[in-house]
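Entry for the shared binder. Reason: the reviewer on the internal report wants the predicted structure included alongside the sequence.
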Amino acid sequence: MTRDSTETPPAGEPTLQPAPDDAREAEIPEAGSLDPLEALPVPEPAEENPTPMSAFMETLPEETLSETEYLSDTTPSGEPAEIDPDKLDPDALKVIHRLHAHGHEAYLVGGCVRDLMLGRTPKDFDIATSAHPGEVRAIFRNCRLIGRRFRLAHIYFKGGKIIEVSTFRANPTELDASNGAEAAADTGTENGEEGSEAEESQDLLITHDNVFGTAEQDARRRDFTMNGLFYDVAEGRVIDYVRGRRDIDERYIRTIGDPEIRMREDPVRILRAVRFASKLGLDIESRTYAAMEGAVEDLPRCAPARLLEETFRLIRGGVAAPSLRLLAALDALKILLPPVAAYFKENGRRGRETFYAYVEALDRRVSSGEPLDDAILLAALLVPIAQAGPVVESQDPAVRPSVAQGIEDLLAEFVQTARLPRRIAERCRLLLIAQRTLSGERRRRTGAFRRHPLFNDALVVFEISVEATGQHREALEAWKRGEVPSLKPEGGTSEGGEAPRKRRRRRRRSGRNKTGAGEGASAASASAAGGAEAAGGEAADSGESDDAGDAGETGDDFESGSESGADSDSDSEFDEG
């Protein structure tokens, strides 16, 4: 159990203060203070009407001291600063300076320090401070507190830029262990059999993490040594409580403390280690990797929304291929992406090669800087699974078209348990369905298909598919030119490369036409269909169906999943997506 806030800590231990629910006012500096920002109004701790977000989108006043007035290229000892000041974010430096002026400790922390020491450009700059969240809010008027379990301060600047400020915290698991040791000592069972059994059965999963501590405790509660580094901008030196320098120099990912305990405290650290290894090109230390293998079974205990977000971060970073290979080696895909694991099992080595060809094509697209939303990213991953599964289309116009059942189940689970917006799941499903039309496996009214809002996104996924497999390149070029690719026969092209024969489609016969007259009408319809297909390019330009005399066959049947009987003028489910 975590020590209650009313308890007195043992002698020699730092005082740990629980995070308050209400904001605390910052101490007002005395007259004559050098803080140039003290004239800013201090917000009230509680507000009945929350401040609109637009009020936070402002920079600090122009009279703020320039960072060059308190930051130099050398340390107080005269040695060069360990990190070039020109590589530090000016807004983060202003926040640190203002916290210092109010008597608080404040350091750059985590990923920004790690990236700078690796010679990379940080994506953002985070700050850790001794100031409580309420005190930070009282100091900065352009600040908003977020989070419930873990209270953070976001300081807003123009352009939507955010500097995240967190308070030094302690590891609750270590507090629980120390409390348990004290209790065992009091009962005389510390080294007894009962005590060892209790220790083995102890649940290490962190469910509360909101206990304040010191800078050293905050460093030790972090996941990996390379993320536990602090940088003191005033002193120009890196503060290393966890030997993170050594691991960065050796290019190792190593947990802080016992890897078995740290991974079971929060199994999401498995995905973080995979992302860092893939993104930074680092090796995972052997004991840490063994602990990751053992903690995979605990992944279902984590919040599904956290697992999904970490999975998307792997894909968004352009390192999906190495990340998914590492997750497959850890046997974690069966939990994170069950259809992918089932696809590997059913298709073996050839299936894995096909899947990773798609993922590598997606990584190249992401690395080029092209913005892709989550629906496109997820659809590009699932295309090979969707193509491998059988497609069963109902003849009932009321039944919507579907993809492989495993994908349908996965998207439904993401929506129900992982908080994936239903809009993204539906877009992903429709993008997968559209691939059959783009490749020529399904026929639909070309004009309506081109005008649909999802057409361009579907074409992006199709381009990734063509790049991965080399197939349907002619169809892709035809779509880009505004033409209509020829319809692919059910059996596909022959091995000899012969031109595929066009499939003759029969008109639906009415109940009255069961005589020879009906057969003659059918033959006339087939003849008309051949003429319309020969003029397919003209039909595409005009937005009309490929076969004017066969509207039931070539109409807008996307919403029904059938190839006949759909009303071509009705709004389709694809249009609603």
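Summary line for the report: Strands lie at 106-109, 126-129, 143-146, 152-156, 162-167, 229-232, 237-240, 252-253, 283-284.
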